[in-house]
Amino acid sequence: MKLNEIRDNDGATKNAKRVGRGIGSGRGKTSGSGHKGQKARSGVSIKGFEGGQMPIHRRLPKRGFNNIFRKTYVEVNVGRIQAAIDAGKLDAGKTVDAAALVAAGVISKAKDGVRLLGKGEISAKVECQVAGASKAAAALIEKAGGSVTVAAKAAE
Q1: Is pLDDT of 42 > 70?
Q2: Domain with 122 in it: what CATH number?
Q3: 50 falls in which pLDDT band (50, 70, 90)?
Q4: Which of 35, 118, 130, 156 has the fewest CB neighbours in a 10 Å radius?
């Protein structure tokens, strides 16, 4: 590759639309803006403008709010943990917690904690330390001989 051979990929750039260059071009005279009026002028920004009538986004009432204290948990099914153990990414002998799941590549980020869900089957005896677990997930793990420890919610 040489500097004089570098160029954009085909279709990466488009030629500018040459407007106002004669009637034969198809974009002459009014340059595709129609005749007069607000939309024919430059600097027009009328999104949501309804001709002076109160816009719909102001007529409708505000509703709801964002809870800044909401926790977002990463959901992991027990079948996914079993698949990671079968693949040799997770060690069934050690405690399975958020850090272990991130290290194994089961989840990419721990967020506010891990919540176990009961989809799939598990046969390995594992000790899980998580922020939350469904009753079905806890039952499956205990049936396999493991245990689930739900971290106590932090007192605020």
Answers
A1: yes
A2: 3.100.10.10
A3: confident
A4: 156
